[in-house]
Specification:
This protein has about 220 residues and is an alpha/beta fold. The strands form two sheets. The protein has a six-stranded mixed sheet, with helices on both faces. Helix 5 packs parallel to helix 6.
Length: about 220
């Protein structure tokens, strides 16, 4: 469901070429849970942003469900991203003036679609935050806020979830819970999940790992099964 082909992202800084991503290729099958692991500055965030259509590559392709996202016009790519990709960020990005339920259903308003209340309830149950639905986000712990962010990413039923250091702001206990829930989502809902992390322990939770160093893949699709 995902093909990354010869993906490059080069910058020019003070006359020096910086290869943030250097000819990366790999594929992901539908329903897989894959971690991309690398140190700070390795290129993993750049890779995730390019896969999600949040940045533009120097060259190469990103094909999601048979759609080359960089052949789309900017507005078309925005709509495609909103309908087919769910994002989970380290910083949660919840709106403080909205309660949990309102934060979760926010994507429906962007497309003017009717809220699927039954599915929203199901997601809240899976993520074990149903009893928090009408609390404000600032009343929640970091781990609970990240669960809300995951619920929001899932609510439009995207085929692909991109998680950018989802445990980066959490303590070890909350990190373990979030990773457990991502595995549960992958198993029960079938979403394909691509998660970047610098933490080997977190990366081990995925079915496969991709290691990246200095913008290049150094090990591709190590199976954890």
């Amino acid at each position: 469901m995902l093909e990354v082909e010869n993906l490059k992202k080069y910058y020019n800084t003070n006359g020096v070429e910086v290869r943030a991503l250097d000819d990366v290729s790999f594929s992901v099958d539908n329903g897989e849970f894959i971690s991309i692991i690398g140190a700070s500055g390795s290129g993993k965030s750049t890779l995730l942003h390019l896969i999600g259509g949040l940045d533009y590559p120097t060259s190469g392709k990103v094909v999601i469900d048979d759609t080359d996202i960089y052949e789309l016009k900017d507005d078309e790519r925005t709509i495609f991203r909103r309908r087919n990709i769910g994002f989970v960020f380290q910083s949660y990005n919840l709106l403080p003036m909205l309660n949990v339920y309102e934060n979760v259903v926010l994507p429906f308003g962007l497309d003017g679609e009717k809220i699927d209340k039954k599915y929203v309830k199901h997601i809240l149950e899976i993520l074990e935050i149903k009893d928090q639905a009408y609390k404000m986000s600032n009343e929640l712990s970091g781990g609970q806020q990240q669960r809300v962010a995951i619920a929001r990413a899932l609510v439009t039923k995207p085929s692909l979830i991109l998680a950018d250091e989802p445990t980066g702001n959490l303590d070890s206990k909350s990190s373990s819970q979030v990773v457990y829930l991502l595995k549960k989502i992958n198993k029960e809902l079938g979403n394909t999940i691509l998660m970047i992390t610098h933490d080997d322990t977190v990366a081990q939770a995925a079915n496969k790992m991709i290691r990246i160093e200095d913008g290049k893949l150094v090990r591709n699709n190590e199976s954890k099964k």
